[in-house]
Design the sequence.
């Protein structure tokens, strides 16, 4: 079984639209939140490098939706490593609704991230920091 990083979330009214279901763009927002919590939990020194010019730039993201979510649904977002190159990361996401009967797959997504460094007024590709590389390898 593939190892995954889990981010747990309870859907609130602020996540829903007038119809009452979760607004589709929130799934993408939750990918970012999951990625941030992963950094906090497994690569905290990388977060400190943001002050020194490091940037993790999302270059592409996607989400395929299979079912709707509603307020107070319990969501488990599972993230794993898709691909890791010199300066790019591909992350895979699965969205699961936790119910009394078990879990239901709600959506799947992907996010590609480029590791960059700010140099004066421009951004240049940079290697993925070693601490982040090692942390991600555990979720391959």
Sequence:
């Amino acid at each position: 079984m593939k190892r995954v990083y889990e981010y747990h979330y309870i859907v609130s009214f602020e996540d829903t639209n007038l119809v009452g279901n979760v607004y589709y763009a929130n799934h993408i927002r939750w990918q970012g939140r999951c990625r941030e919590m992963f950094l906090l939990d497994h690569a905290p020194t990388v977060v400190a490098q943001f002050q020194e010019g490091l940037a993790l730039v999302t270059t592409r993201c996607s989400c395929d939706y299979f079912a709707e979510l509603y307020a107070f649904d319990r969501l488990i977002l599972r993230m794993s490593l898709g691909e890791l190159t010199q300066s790019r990361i591909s992350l895979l996401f699965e969205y699961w609704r936790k119910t009394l009967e078990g879990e239901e797959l709600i959506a799947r997504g992907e996010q590609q991230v480029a590791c960059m460094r700010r140099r004066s007024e421009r951004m240049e590709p940079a290697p993925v920091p070693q601490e982040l590389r090692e942390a991600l390898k555990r979720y391959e």
